[in-house]
Amino acid sequence: MPRIQRLLDLAKIDDWFSVTNSIVQKLIPEEIRNELKSFDPEEMYEDTMTFLVDCCTRQGHYREGECIEVEDWAGDFDASFLKRYTHIRGFHACRAFGGLELYRQHGIRKLSRELLRELAHLAFQGHSAPAAIDAAVAQSDLPSHEKSVFLFTDEVTPLDCSCNHFLHSGSEMLQALSIDLGLDSRGILASQGSPYLIECSVPIRHVSKGNRQELWRKFVTEYFKVASGSLRPTEPYDFSIRVTKSIEPTSIVGFRSIDRLVKSYVPLH
User: Fold this and answer.
1) Three-state DSSP class for residue 217
2) Domains contained in the chain, number
């Protein structure tokens, strides 16, 4: 019998906070939970979680002299959250040079040289000769991190001027190609196609393990901050995730046209 889908939506704070509470109650001994209530929430850092590690060491939950790191908790947190959630809600910021039909047909594909060539011909048609585009693509370097799909977990951050270059220019690879092609007039990319946020429901196991563990650290740290006196968050985290597989068309929930953009920090080549 197929597993019922359960979506992690960072905008639903009560939901993920309740799930985090149940996981913390199960995994972390009561005496540690109680002692952490006296810690300063301003000194609880989710990247290192030293507050948890130090408390565990003082409580004698590890052998004397043993080196304890946050990674000692990472596997347990990851396994526990993966039992609670099957999918995660995210937003892909893009510029649809060829319209939305490519996304409806192929989903959101990981970048490859073939896909880069396809997008470059759509974006630069009429501005550069086809042979020149092919040559620039063939000589381009595709960093390993580009061979993934990136999503925001909230719908506000991708509109911010520090992030909205994806909506203005499509991708950083296309920006680099435009420079290689000598297309240094502002607005070449921003004048092609239309900007969209694509809402997705992605299998959470397709999110890179590092991103997942970073998110769980945020959740658990937030739980202990609240327990020690901080207010519960009221807005979803400004967070992005790297999805290691192409996103299937069936995982696309909808398309949101962006009518107006604020100024971007990056040049609009």
Assistant:
1) helix
2) 2
Residues 130, 44, single domain; the answer is no
Q: Does residue 75 sit in the same domain as residue 177? A: no
Write down the mean pLDDT value for the chain.
88
Annotate 144-178 with b (16+ C-beta within 10 A) or e (fewer). eeeebbbbbbbbebbbeeebbbbbbbbbebbbebb
C-alpha pair distances (Å), 204 with each of 6, 82, 150, 208, 232: 10, 8, 13, 9, 24
Calculate mean pLDDT across residues 2-6. 71
Per-residue pLDDT tens digits for 212-223: 999 999 999 999
Question: Are 178 and 94 found together in one domain?
Answer: yes
In the numeric block, which tokens belong to residue 11? 């905008």
Q: How many CB atoms lie within 10 A of CB 94?
A: 22
262 lies in some domain: no
Place of tokens 């996981």: 23
Q: List phi, psi (to 5°) of 199.
A: -80, 135
168 is a domain residue:
yes
Whether residues 36 and 67 share a domain: the answer is yes
The larger pLDDT score, comparing residue 173 to residue 187, is at 173
Three-state DSSP class for 240? strand
DSSP 194: E
**SS3 assignment, position 241:** strand
pLDDT at 59 over 80: no
Q: What is the pLDDT of residues 181-216, one digit of tens each?
A: 988 656 788 888 899 999 999 999 999 999 999 999
Expressed as residue numbers, the domain containing 29 is 10-85+208-236
